[in-house]
Amino acid sequence: MINDRRLSRRGALGLFGALGLTATGLAGCSSSDDTADAATTSTPEPVPTSADDAWAALAAGNERFANGEPRHPHEDRPYRESLVAGQHPIACVLSCADSRVAPELVFDQGLGDLFTVRSAGEVLDDAVLGSIEYAVEHVAVPLVVVLGHAGCGAVAATVDVVRGGPAPDGSIAALVQAIEPAVRGVSAGGDDAAYLAACVEAQARSAAAALADASPIVREAVADGRTSVVAGVYDLASGRVSQL
Ligand SMILES: [Zn+2]
């Protein structure tokens, strides 16, 4: 039974203790939860402790979002206050910084649910890697999702450069440089939209693979089965996320 493998918010106290945090806020949250509207906010929900369960929770939220039936969970005052004691997010999400790809909205999650890291084109640098390492090592997320998206401007800019266009100004050039190997690995052909979509997928896969290569902390956590890294792509029109 999937619920047997899950941990309730109250059951997560041991983990919070291991992280040196207290559970006072969680205890305070309980009485409020009992009277809250379960369809909106505050109900203590099981916290996934495996990568499969974490992905299932994200997929369910994305389904609600894509269908136009989001719950907008975990935004009310009691829940916010409960999080003062600590965090136990479902997953770490590295997404593009694009304004149309807000992970909490796309996965219909709320405060404390996602450890979100964002950079244009999901480019990895020391700050991004360090943030993800913190999520894996100290927040103990069971899943890291690298989320690319349709119509990514950073990937499109890289396609322009690969096709012979001028390098962009400023530090945007560093983004293009980081994305370029993934784009060069895609066979050009077909229409432009299909090519860009293939490049977007390639960059998300490349960043996910590079996470383990570049980070011994992530690599060891994956090897130990403490976390998993997956790549996904978000479709702007349908609102749906597909795991690659
Ligand atoms: Zn983008």
TrEMBL record:
Keyword annotations: Lyase, Metal-binding, Signal, Zinc
Signal sequence region: 1-27
Record-linked Gene3D superfamilies: Carbonic anhydrase
Enzyme class: lyase
Residues covered by region (Disordered): 30-50
Record note on cofactor: Binds 1 zinc ion per subunit.
Species annotation: Jiangella aurantiaca
InterPro entries: Carbonic_anhydrase, Carbonic_anhydrase_CS, Carbonic_anhydrase_sf, TAT_signal
Descriptive protein name: Carbonic anhydrase
